[in-house]
Specification:
The chain is α/β, with parallel strands linked by helices. Among the domains are: about 5-160, Rossmann fold (3-Layer(aba) Sandwich), CATH 3.40.50; about 345-460, no CATH class. It has helices at about 30-40, 65-75, 90-100, 135-155, 160-170, 180-190, 195-210, 215-225, 230-245, 250-265, 275-285, 290-310, 310-335, 335-350, 360-375, 385-395, 400-410, 420-430, 440-460; strands spanning about 10-15, 20, 25, 55, 80-85, 105-110, 125-130.
Length: about 450
C-alpha cells in the first residue's frame, strides 16, 4: 500500500463485524478495538526513538484500491502479523497460510479460551485470550503485548510451512532419507495400528530432522508419558523448553513429569517437585487453566504429605495455597469441573463447610451439563473420573440417590484399586474438615469396599 511503513506494522488477521462463534454472537470489531489494537500499539520495537508496532486491519484503511491486493501486501511485508482463529473463519486460515509461506518468523496465533484448534495446525502454539469481563480484556492486552515483545526480541522460527521446507532440504541428513512429513505420517500410522515401538522410533527420527522443533518434542514427550515412560518424557519436555524458553505448554508438561517422578522416587531431598516449572508455565500463558490446575495438584499433594506426617499447621497453609491456585484455574476455565470440585473440597477442608455463594451456584450446573454429556458418550468419556465428578456434583446439590447411583456406575469402569482409592482420599478432605453432607459417609464406605475388592482381585491374579 503506497506510503505505508511496513517496518512498524502488525497486520491483524481476524473476522470483521459480528460472527457466530459456537452458540454466541461475537463482535470482532469490538475485540479489535478494545483488545488487539491497544495491545499491539503498546508493543515496543526496541529501537531508537521508542517506536512501537502499529495495528492494521484492511477494513480499517480507507482507500480506493483493491482490498485483496493491499491484504497481500500486508501479509508479505508487515513486520509482524497476528491471527485470531476463533470461530474457524476460512478467510483467516487462508491469510494465515499465506503469511506462513511468506515469513519464517513474526507470526502469532490467538484464540478465545476453550475454542478448538483444527488438526492441521494443532502443532502451532495458539495463545488463549478473553475479552469479557473488562478485567479479562486487560489481562489479554498484557498477554498479547508480552507475546509480541518477546517474539520480536527472539525472532524464532514460527512458520510450520518454512519449518517443513527446511526439513525437506535436510533430507540427506536423516537416517532413512525421509522428510519430516513422511516420518510423522509413519508415526501416526503406527499409532493407529498400536505399534507403539514403531511410533516412538518414527518420532525420534523426526526430532533428528528438526531438533529445535519444540512442538514436535512436546508431541513425542506426551506419547512417552502416555506409555508411562516418564524419564524419557521429561527429557523431551526439557528439550522443548530449551528450544523455546517461553513455551508454556512445554513448561507445564515438564512440571507434571517432574512431580510424577518426585512422587515415584519417594520425594528425594533437593529433587524438582514440578512447582517451579508449572509457575513458569502459567507466567508464560496465564490463560492455561490446565497449568493452573496442575500447579494446584502439586501443592495439594505436598499438603497431603504434610498432613500424613503429623504437621497439620503446615498442611493447612499448603491447602490454602492449593485452594487459591485451583480457584484461579476455575476462573480461567470458566468453571471446568476438575479445578472447581477440588476448590470446593479444599474449602471444606479449610473452613469446615462447602461454599454456597453465587459463584459456585452458577458453575456447578454448568459442570453438571458437561459431565452428563461425558458419561452419556458411547463409550463414556474419561471414565471413571467423569462419573466420580458427576456424582460429586450431585452430592453438593443434595441429590443423595443420584450421588450413590452415579458413583456406583463409575466404580464399574475401574480397572485398578488406585482409582477408587484416589477418589476416596479426595472426598476424605471433606470429612477431615468437619463437613457433613447427606450420603457422604455411605459414599466413602462404598469407595473403601471397592478399593479393597480391587486389591484382592489384583493379589489373586499374582
Amino acid at each position: 500500500m503506497p506510503g505505508t511503513d511496513y517496518s512498524v506494522v502488525c497486520f491483524v488477521i481476524m473476522p470483521f463485524g459480528t460472527k457466530k462463534v459456537g452458540d454466541k454472537d461475537v463482535d470482532f470489531d469490538f475485540i479489535f478495538r478494545e483488545v488487539f489494537e491497544p495491545a499491539v500499539n503498546a508493543t515496543p520495537l526496541g529501537e531508537a526513538g521508542g517506536r512501537t508496532l502499529v495495528a492494521k486491519r484492511t477494513d480499517k484503511d480507507f482507500f480506493t484500491g483493491d482490498i485483496s491486493q493491499d491484504m497481500f501486501e500486508y501479509l508479505e511485508y508487515s513486520r509482524f502479523a497476528i491471527a485470531d482463529i476463533s470461530g474457524l473463519n476460512p478467510n483467516v486460515f487462508y491469510e494465515l497460510g499465506v503469511r506462513h509461506r511468506a515469513h519464517d518468523a513474526g507470526t502469532a496465533v490467538f484464540r478465545q479460551v476453550g475454542l478448538p484448534i483444527p488438526f492441521d495446525i494443532n502443532s502451532i502454539k495458539a495463545f488463549d485470550y478473553e475479552y469479557q469481563p473488562v478485567e479479562n480484556a486487560a489481562k489479554s492486552r498484557e498477554l498479547i503485548t508480552r507475546v509480541l515483545t518477546e517474539s520480536l526480541q527472539h525472532n524464532r522460527l514460527d512458520s510450520p510451512v518454512q519449518r517443513a521446507l527446511l526439513a525437506q532440504r535436510a533430507r540427506a541428513a536423516t537416517p532413512a532419507g525421509s522428510t519430516l512429513d513422511e516420518l510423522l505420517r509413519d508415526a501416526e500410522n503406527a499409532i493407529r495400528h498400536e505399534r507403539w515401538a514403531d511410533a516412538i522410533d518414527a518420532y525420534r527420527k523426526a526430532t533428528q530432522v528438526d531438533p529445535g522443533n519444540c512442538r514436535l518434542r512436546l508431541r513425542l514427550g506426551l506419547f512417552l508419558k502416555d506409555r508411562g515412560r516418564w524419564d524419557e518424557a521429561l527429557a523431551e519436555f526439557d528439550a522443548a523448553v530449551d528450544a523455546e524458553g517461553t513455551y508454556g505448554d512445554g513448561w507445564r508438561e515438564k512440571g507434571i513429569a517432574e512431580n510424577k517422578l518426585f512422587i515415584k522416587r519417594s520425594r528425594p531431598v533437593g529433587a524438582a517437585t514440578g512447582e517451579d516449572s508449572l509457575r513458569k508455565a502459567v507466567t508464560f500463558n496465564a490463560a492455561d487453566y490446565d497449568g493452573w490446575a496442575s500447579l494446584g495438584g502439586v501443592i495439594k499433594r505436598e499438603a497431603d504429605n504434610l498432613d500424613k506426617s503429623g504437621q497439620p499447621e503446615r498442611a493447612v497453609a499448603e491447602y490454602k495455597r492449593a485452594y487459591e491456585t485451583y480457584r484461579k484455574a476455575t476462573d480461567v476455565s470458566e468453571g471446568n469441573s476438575y479445578p472447581l470440585l477440588n476448590e470446593i473440597k479444599l474449602a471444606g477442608r479449610i473452613e469446615g463447610k462447602v461454599p454456597n455463594d453465587i459463584r459456585i451456584k452458577l458453575r456447578l450446573p454448568k459442570a453438571e451439563r458437561f459431565l452428563k454429556a461425558q458419561v452419556a458418550d458411547k463409550p463414556p468419556s474419561n471414565a471413571p473420573w467423569s462419573f466420580f465428578d458427576l456424582s460429586e456434583v450431585k452430592l453438593y446439590s443434595g441429590d443423595t440417590e443420584g450421588f450413590m447411583n452415579v458413583l456406583t456406575d463409575g466404580l464399574t469402569y475401574c480397572t485398578d484399586y488406585w482409582q477408587p482409592e484416589t477418589h476416596l482420599n479426595s472426598l476424605l478432605l471433606l470429612k477431615v474438615g468437619g463437613v457433613s453432607l447427606p450420603g457422604l459417609e455411605d459414599g466413602l464406605e462404598l469407595l473403601r469396599e471397592a478399593t479393597a475388592e480391587l486389591k484382592r482381585s489384583a493379589e489373586a491374579r499374582t
